[in-house]
Specification:
The structure is a homodimer. Chain A is 45% helix and 16% strand. Chain A is of the alpha/beta class. Chain A has 3 domains: 4-47, no CATH class; 57-162 and 296-324, Response regulator (Rossmann fold, 3-Layer(aba) Sandwich), CATH 3.40.50.2300; 165-295, Rossmann fold (3-Layer(aba) Sandwich), CATH 3.40.50.2300. In chain A, the strands form 2 sheets. In chain A, strands 2-1-3-4-5-11 form a 6-stranded parallel beta sheet. In chain A, α2 (15-22) crosses α3, α5 crosses α13 and α11 (225-238) crosses α12 (252-262). The longest helix of chain A is centred in the C-terminal third of the chain and has 17 residues, at 296-312. Chain A is elongated. At the A-B interface, α4, α5, β2, α6 and α11 of A face α4, α5, β2, α6 and α11 of B. The structure holds a DNA duplex.
Chain lengths: 335, 335
Amino acid sequence: MVTLKQLAEQLNVSVSTVSKALNGSYEISDETIKRVKELADMMNYRPNKMALSLKHSKTFTIGVIVPDILNHFFAKVLYGIEQEATELGYNIITCLSNESFDKEVNSLEFLANGSVDGFILAMAEETQVLEKSEHFDTILNQKFPMVMFDRVNDSIACDKVIIDDFNAAYNATTHLLKEGRRKIVLLTGIDELSVGKLRVKGYEKALKDFSGYTAEPFVLKVNTIETANTEIGALFDEEDDIDGILGIDNSTGVMALINAQKRNINVPKDMSIIGFSASNVLPFTDPKLSTVSQNAIKMGKKAVNILVEKLKVEEEAPIKTHMVETKLILRGTTL
Amino acid sequence: MVTLKQLAEQLNVSVSTVSKALNGSYEISDETIKRVKELADMMNYRPNKMALSLKHSKTFTIGVIVPDILNHFFAKVLYGIEQEATELGYNIITCLSNESFDKEVNSLEFLANGSVDGFILAMAEETQVLEKSEHFDTILNQKFPMVMFDRVNDSIACDKVIIDDFNAAYNATTHLLKEGRRKIVLLTGIDELSVGKLRVKGYEKALKDFSGYTAEPFVLKVNTIETANTEIGALFDEEDDIDGILGIDNSTGVMALINAQKRNINVPKDMSIIGFSASNVLPFTDPKLSTVSQNAIKMGKKAVNILVEKLKVEEEAPIKTHMVETKLILRGTTL
DNA sequence: GTGAAAGCGCTAACAC
DNA sequence: GTGTTAGCGCTTTCAC
């Protein structure tokens, strides 16, 4: 790697002159600036990032901790984060917690030693289940800006980007109700997560608010993605009067559709189905699933914007929770 | 952040003593070592990564450039890379080229300035189509170790991790032939990519080698994922004697299955289907798709192992191409 | 208009 | 057994 020193030697000037020249300082003569810049170009000089980081105590790098990159939702958020970070001149350094509390703690510690300027993360499932948060407080006490997305915890004093899970589910349910559905079942594979709980609440409230709906709320918690298909099938076999489905995670909506088709249930005539996200499987079903779009990419971008803003201003800005709007996208599985 | 200097002041010793004590140097008395380590623990001292990087000219960070994180195959490779890197004490700094040549060049330049010790990457589609490779040579000339995976180019002198695409397709095709299929069609959405070309060659060779197979090779190139479904449907409507399908990308296999089922073709009795990868959609079809497993996670881990090995030894080791074995996993869409 | 020197946090060769 | 010093590559204050 070519350094300022090498340029200085070649040009018979001092290192500081070279540095100033490259930064276009008014102190340096146009003549010298020109000579320096030309040589720098020719020798393909690039300032050493580590030296800059050390000097400025800024890394221009964002630490991102994602619970599960194989989950399409998180992949999309990461996509948004990377795009916006690059746009703003930041690198991202990515760690995967794989839903493990320990790995999350390690990643946080690993990065909090001068590797990054701040964090963007979603809590691991285990962290949410165990209701841990001290490790985040440690980071915040060290004055690292932090933005949480999707899986958040109100007790942690940091900025947050979430979708309005309650209303998203409320509106989706209301749509089913307005279609005249009489027995609407909610399917969830994420009842341990904050977002899952909120979506269930939204569903329940919608049913209660809709005069004329008489059935009780009906929540089916599926266990794993492998068994989900069977569990949903069993539900359909037991209860033959279900006419509305709200799948609040990535996969249950699609699975409901597959199961309905296998049983020759006419979707959407005799049964309406709405899922969350899962856009990666859209091309594979017919009719295409109606979904609540979570705007994952926008969420990632928003998180970066908030973080970079915090990074720029010195004094502590008040923290806030930002809502990304959702859209109910009606495709083929609803009327 | 607490520094060596702060510890030194508190203990009334010099910075170097603290440094040596923390590294357990034999020069320092047990007594002092104990005092230093205790205070360091208490004050939660962590060595500054940037300073270490600058000092050692090593970052312990790997630059990863992925063409498309929303592609499940690449997400899995990234998963493997992250896991193994963490295991070996390395960070990864991730850039997404989004299949763009320019973005790939930028990412490379952006990271080659002291941010990373080496690279792991797969070429962007555009880079493969344009047959560009000078930007990689530039990096290699700077003595950065580099490992390419999946999408590689023989003309680039670096280590490579690939699957044996030719034989993977050859074996899958041979399986269909042994089932007695008489008209086997290959579906591809990746005919521009090196891996796509190799897979087509494997398919063609298998047909030729199998005595008694009379039909000509039949390759359908689909245009986009959105139109693929229609294009495959049109094929099925035109040619009613197709009894074998090899989908060599992420999605065409599943789409063939969906289309076959819509036309009441009995899979696998009257038509066999084999796809590549696409494990994320497996839970959604019935029967489940038989696939060539690409061992994406293993590929990622292997790439990290090779790179870290290069990083450790000083002298230049000979480059080689490593093959990750594939497995033909028969599920429900083959006999 | 240019250069010398200090310092970001750390390590290591070399005193003492 | 401990301290001094120089230096990794860079910026910036202060001299000249």
